[in-house]
Amino acid sequence: MQQPVTAVKGIGEETAAALADIGIRTVGELLAYAPYRYDDYEQKDLAAVRHEEKVTVEGKVHSAPVLTYYGKKKSRLSFRLLADRYLITVVCFNRPYLKEKITLNETVTVIGKWDRHRQTINAYELRFGPAPETTGIEPVYSVRSPLTVKMMRRLMKAAFDQFGSHIPELLPPALRRAYRLVDKQEALRALHFPRSREELHQARRRLAYEEFLLYQLKMQALRKIMRDERRGVAHSYSEEQLASFLAGLPFSLTNAQRRVIDEILVDMRAPRQMNRLLQGDVGSGKTVVAAVALYAAALSRFQGALMVPTEILAEQHARSLAELFAGTDVTLALLTSSVKGKRRKEVLAELEEGTIDIVVGTHALIQEGVQFHRLGLVITDEQHRFGVEQRRILREKGHAPDVLMMTATPIPRTLAMTVFGDMDVSVLDEMPAGRKKVETYWVKHHQFARVLDFIEKELRRGHQAYVICPLIEESEKLDVQNAIDVHSQLVHYYRGKYEVGLMHGRLSPEEKEAVMRAFSENRIHVLVSTTVVEVGVNVPNATVMVIYDAERFGLAQLHQLRGRVGRGDAQSYCILIADPKSEIGKERMRIMTETTDGFVLAEKDLELRGPGDVFGTKQSGLPEFRYGDPVHDYRIFEVAHRDAAKLIASPAFWRGEAYAGLRAELEASGALGGEKWD
């Protein structure tokens, strides 16, 4: 399997170079390369085919093809086809050369997407002559020139004929029997040369389970190394002092906060390094949980650091913590790029001497020259905004400090198990008492004037409003309202009465800070912004969130934006302005008006959009699975998660012959190699 692809008959240096471009260098990588879809040549009665389903239809050309051009070099070719008892329209885009090849009464086979409403097939393949006499399931591979799909099918057959019998079996017989899984060789054969849909289903099921199991074994092994081998800080503090601090809080903790605080304190008291993710919806009270953890660290004579993405957020957290720690001996400092000169030198010196217990800051915390006396707890807020490398630098400012990552982005369970499989996860799934729900309404664009009147009513009460737009300035590609246009419109509308500010990603960090500061101090009454405002800023006086072209945003993002309001005592409102064309767009708007539970929304978003979009694959480290999808195959994923935990904990796994293949894969992944756990 490790031989270069040139070992396959028919693959020369040129083809090998083309295969290397799509990540295939060895025989094993070639055999493992999965088709991204299948062409099904099995013909069905069109009455039984669902709208937008892929279909294969054989029929006779009933009308001469009509070719029309539009845009630059774009074309649309259409003709009528008599297929069995149906007269339908076939449409081919950007293939004008077909016009000369299509003749009346000729038999053609069309493969494409069925538009049931228009009785039209959007064809992506046209074959002249009758459909092939096969079960008709052919793999379609993702390729780039000079490779073609036909060539890939041929190469795959050659590779399988030559090396198929050498495909190693990784899963032990006990697991294969338990889940009635076909063996690896049979699964890969069916993946590339399926004889039926059922055979293909069983192949994918087997390969997805193995892929998930290997991933989860890696995660669980990392977790075990973290627990067993990474000696951490064992915090030791006065239970009475901590209880007194909790009793003195100006509000009652929710049951969820108490549960999560207990989980964190158990970790902090243990001699191993804590590696925990705290998920909590907007407004669920993560700051208080962080404060308790930081206070416990200070009581243990260790320092705590809280790193956040923006200066304003750092200042807000510093103010909140200062209020909570009033009356205690805790010393607190703020360190951002705005802390300069003499004050900066003082903070750095006091951190190094250990006279500062807790520091709140931005990326400034990980710069050279920032030294801690005894760092014992690192907390990052909105952790996905920081790269792995940035988090590592902060962690290494101490000797294996406890790590708590916080996020207000609700992450569905399967995704949390995927991305954070090597971490313990705590969830704040309860809102503090008395917090009013943000009322959410969906309106159409033609009702914008009414929205402006509604905003003005709130402004007259002394409140403020956000208006969020998807783009900064006009774009030819997307017909969406942009921030600069909307800002001009609102400046004109509220002229002489209210200040309208503008915020977007092209402003410098200093300009963004200035705009947000003016808004938080109520010098700007209406803030027109792109989604840069999404995370963190707390303006309790803002009661209206208007989101323009709301269908352009995912549910998780809409929910984050909605969470910017409803932070004070007054009733707050979220108004979604959208004219969605698709059913998914309409469904998103309906869900937003019906629920304010971030976890429900995150699960729905995952169903509607898929994990990469929801979580921002590049930022999250979400793995690209080849055969399975943790969302749609979540049952297989959970079984693999459970099995991996059992195997890692079992002595038989580490010694038994049956598990040698899995162990070898685990070792090859680097999960057992010490420093790979990042």
How would you sum up this structure, described in words?
A hairpin with a 4-residue loop joins strand 6 and strand 7 (120-128). The strands form four sheets. The protein has a seven-stranded parallel β-sheet, sandwiched between helices. Strands 16-21-20-17-19-18 form a six-stranded parallel β-sheet, sandwiched between helices. A five-stranded mixed β-barrel has the order 2-4-5-7-6. It has 678 residues and is α/β, with parallel strands linked by helices. Among the domains are: 43-128, Beta Barrel (OB fold (Dihydrolipoamide Acetyltransferase, E2P)); 439-595, Rossmann fold (3-Layer(aba) Sandwich). The longest helix is centred in the first third of the chain and has 32 residues, at 197-228. Residues 611-621 and 674-678 have low confidence and may be disordered. Helix 6 (197-228) packs across helix 22 (634-649). It is 39% helix and 18% strand. The chain starts with 12 loop residues before the first helix and ends in a 9-residue tail after the last helix. Residues 447-607 form the Helicase C-terminal domain.
